[in-house]
Prior knowledge:
By secondary structure, the chain is of the alpha+beta class. It folds into two domains: 21-150, Alpha-Beta Complex (Transposase Inhibitor Protein From Tn5, Chain A, domain 1), CATH 3.90.350.10; 162-224, no CATH class. The chain contains eight helices and five strands. A five-stranded mixed sheet has the order 1-2-5-4-3, with helices on both faces. The protein is elongated, with a radius of gyration of 25 Å.
Amino acid sequence: MGNWRIPWNYRVYRGKGHPSPAELGRRLLKSLPKEMRKTFKIMVLADSAFGSVAFLTTVRHLKLYAIVGVPKTRKLVDGRSLAQLHKGGQHLYLKDLPFPVSIAHYYFTTDDGRKVKRYLISTRQLKPSTIVWWGKRRWQIEGWFKTVKHRFSLHRFGQSTLLGVHRWLVLCLISFVLALWGYWINGLSSQPDWGLAAQTALEFFFPTLVLSILLLDIQKQRSLANEHGIDIQVSRWNI
């Protein structure tokens, strides 16, 4: 919403035999209040998992528009695949989709330095450069998901009830707020080091816990230190 990035809602994908990510995405879009859809110009950014006919049709029905990643094997009504297109910005019909979309592509650099051609479609007629500009912004969403999963333990939740999921989300949010505080006092930078920020917050708010972990580790390694002629003595005094 403008310059604000606010999580609005979520759904949990439970795996095979349950509603697909695209179906869950449709339900999320339908949960948007009518007042919000009328007041704001809403653009949906999504990866290829959400490129189904049902999802795109729902976007159209709700009078929104979307820019979605699609695989190069996606077929057009004339039988060609997207990989056979060499000019961006064309307004074409995909197979089984009842309305035309604008098509664009860009080159994504992989971790090993290779250039991979990626395709995007827009349900609104836009210039290729505009589609690519917005399409690349969804990588910020991917980056956020990786951060919240692996830095703030969102991927470790095993709760099976809605209340359990909400409790785990609150714990993840608290850990993020504490780490954000650690990031601020370390000085702002363009790319935050969340590991350093979390360690700073841990040492400030829970110094006794940090020291207890250190002392426990020393105790475990005491015999190894003795074997190498090192005697570790720990003393405590009142400050």
